[in-house]
Amino acid sequence: QVQLVESGGGLVQAGGSLKLSCAASGRAFSYYAMAWFRQAPGKEREFAAAITWSGGSTYYADSVKGRFTISRDNAKNTVYLHMNSLKPEDTAVYYCAGDSVAFRPHSDQGEYDYWGQGTQVTVSS
User: Are 125 and 14 a contacting pair, CB within 8 Å?
Assistant: First the structure.
């Protein structure tokens, strides 16, 4: 079994930056795709970013494109989300997820097999 644990969330001012980490345990970090999702207050959980096992391909939601960067270090069993130019609309609980089947990054949360418990990101204006 695999466990995913997010960290790095916090309170920042609009325009600031945060780096989230998602550490995997339980087995080798070898998901075909990893992703970050987020759920804002009063809203449905939505896709933010995804990355392939090799890190060679990424995919971003339009809402974060150009501001967020997803990356991974398989040797450390960790995936990251660098968030820049943060906006109040980015306030949400951020979850990492792993897909053991797909070979491409994707936004279909129903296909992700493993989920972390989330880390809170709050952006003040």
Answer: yes
pLDDT values of the chain reduced to their tens digit, one per residue, 125 residues: 788 999 999 999 999 999 999 998 866 556 668 999 999 999 999 999 999 877 789 999 999 999 999 999 888 889 999 999 999 999 999 999 998 888 789 999 999 989 999 999 999 99
b/e code 13-38 from CB counts within 10 Å (16+ = b): eeeeebebbbbbeeeebebbbbbbbb
For residue 66, count CB atoms less than 10 angstroms from its CB and return exposed for 0-12, middle for 13-18, buried for 19 or more.
exposed
Which tokens go with 22? 């998602």
Rounded Cα distance, 110 and 118, in Å = 17
